[in-house]
Amino acid sequence: MKPIQLTRIIPTLLAVSIMWAPIHQNTAIANDEPSDFAIPHRVDFENDLIPIFTKFGCNAGACHGAAAGRGDFNLSLFGGNPQADYKAIVRQFAGRRINFMRPEESLILLKPTAQTQHGGGQVLNENGEGAQLLLNWIQQGARYETLRHLQHIEIAPQKHIISNLENPIPLHATAHFSDGTTENVTRWTVFTPEDTSAVDIDTATAVAKVRRRGRHIILARYLTEVVPIEFITPLNEVPISDETHTPSESAETSIDGEIRKLLSTLQLPLSPAADDATFLRRVTLDLTGRLPTPAAVTAFLADPDTNKRETLIDALLDSDEFNEYWTLQLAKLLRIHAEGGNTQGAFAYHQWLAQQIQEGVGYNQIARSVILATGDSHQVGPANFYRTVGSAGEQAEFMSELFMGARLRCANCHNHPLDKWTQDDYHGLAAIFAKIEANGQMIKVKPSGTVIHPATREAAIPRIPGDRSLSTDVTDGRTELADWLTDADNPYFAKAIVNRLWKALMGRGLVEPVDDFRATNPATHPELLTELAHDFVAHGYDLRRTLKRIARSDAYARSAKTIPQNATDDRFYSHALKKPLAPEVLADAISDVLGVPDTYGNEPEGTRAVSLFDPNTESDALDILGRCARESSCESPTQTTDGLQRKLHLFNGDLLNARIGAPESRLDKLIATGKSPMQIVNAFYLAALNRHPTETEQQFWAQHIDSNATANTQRATLEDIVWSLLTCNEFTTNH
């Protein structure tokens, strides 16, 4: 063998050995015990060796797959770029990782087998199959040969219902290749539970054992393919009676049928339906962001019409309050804010969006309008879409999270480790947006705009993510992008928004987080998500229709009160989930109950928080309640509506105390009219909790109120009662 060939091969073996970190040591060796195996006549670098590196953690983010590598040795994350890995192993450092004259002395082999010092310890057995494959590859000349390409992997079982926790579940992986061949690749497939406390995986035998009841996801990774496995163990050992799951005469059997089907599998019983007062409060808050008035509560409770809930939903969807509140909801998604003091642009953007909601414009047209917008951002509202973030890359990230529910940002530095997105997708989408220039308030096309692809160090080719590259001389690829995105067959667009609508009403997305759609983060109810998306597209991308369908379902109308058998359910909708009121909604609710409006910057008195176009409008109340500035996603886990500051101010701050008994407040007016203390208590129950006090509550307050004294002489006590209502969990949540 020629010396130059020897030099060329040394890096490959060495690179592999350096990739193991100590955290992988015990499990790695267990997976590479000596066994009877036959080494292929010709070792395929991509299909035979890359799986070894992945199996033993060499190309993981904690080892050589990190952006900076480890020990001057860098591999692509999870083998996403085999050609780059080959160069790192064979050609870097003058090929010293490969020894052609004495293949068994190659560093790429000596280090992982711990025959020489290795920071990651021993990860390969010297006589195991992995080490032998490496050795044979070097002996064969350490060439980069790919004899076939992986098409997909098949996992068995991919969905499994477990009746007995004591039963182990063997896992099996079959690779399907481009030449029509298949291969059992179970031994080289990495099986990783999302919750390691719930599922154990024996890495040597690929046998799983579930430790806890519920729905559990395991990720199976082989080469670039990642497939989710779903294990379901009924949450109750005693089967639920069939009567519990008998469908009612629901208007939305497609929704309730899917919900009930999974609940039946999980043996989760249903909580009863919410009473009329609870339903009225819930749906009014969800659709309009406002509390129902005491008069509306009284009228609804007295209405004998059996269809009054549907009538109520229709009225709310047709109201000005709906338009105002859902303008706010979409303004948060679009991150409308006065960037750099751009209040004129934010106002124009907000006014345009409000008009779209009022006129019932399809969500697909809203998306097209913002993507294709150009012009003076002070006059053309949607043009402010290109003033929301600062760079083409950030625009690509923003657009993908907003309209696709996909975290494309994970493909900036390397191919997405848990999804199909590649660096070409990320920088190709950024290249489309690079041709749009935000020059002050003017948004215009800039044909010369480019972004540099970090892998090629050249201008990235504009690309529709996951679909196709555009012509290199394209002037403005946004039309192709908008056409692809809003096409009826697009797999992301409709699902992303109906999932957000579902969360807005139900408290949790069918996919959660809502901006993290990927095969490895499956929906709790995939068929339901697909059906909702298809219906949304078929009816003109109508936001109101989907909201109405959800609001009319039995699942939405269920009580939030749990029973012992479903108390731990936080995602399958056996009962309603309590939702903290958004800061703007809570601020308005406090003002409505107290009868004292808050002030917001220079806005006219009586302006509601949900109507503010600029989230940075001066307001102590909204700061206390934890509003989102919209400079980044308001859906981020870091955005909270239940912080310590909020709790402290609700307990003992001017947010409530300065207004409860203020002149002309609701309490002041009720006292002035001569109402009795218990009448005042009942009035505040209707205003704040939208129901009458229970008999137990009436008895409790009667113990603290002197029925023989006037309300005015007991003002302090009544103020405390009002305070207690406005700080209780029932008021600050939508239940």
Report on this structure.
With 735 residues, the protein is α+β, with helices and mostly antiparallel strands. Among the domains are: 3-139, no CATH class; 150-233, Sandwich (Immunoglobulin-like), CATH 2.60.40; 389-487, no CATH class; 581-658, no CATH class; 661-734, no CATH class. 40% of the residues lie in helices and 10% in strands. The chain contains 28 helices and 19 strands. A hairpin with a 4-residue loop joins strand 14 and strand 15 (458-459). Helix 17 crosses helix 18 (526-538). The longest helix has 17 residues, at 343-359. The radius of gyration is 31 Å and the shape is globular. The model is unreliable at 1-30 and 242-251 (pLDDT under 50).
- Which regions are unreliable across 5 or more consecutive residues at pLDDT < 50? 1-30, 242-251
Q: Tell me, what's the shape?
A: globular
Strand content: 5-15%
Q: Tell me the radius of gyration.
A: 31 Å
Supply the number of helical segments. Answer: 28
Number of strands: 19
Estimate percent helicity: 25-40%
Mean pLDDT, all residues: 88
Could you tell me how far the N terminus lies from the C terminus, measured between alpha carbons in angstroms?
A: 76 Å
- How would you classify the helix and strand content by structural class? alpha+beta
Question: How are the strands of the largest sheet arranged?
Answer: 2-10-9-6
Largest sheet report? 4 strands, mixed
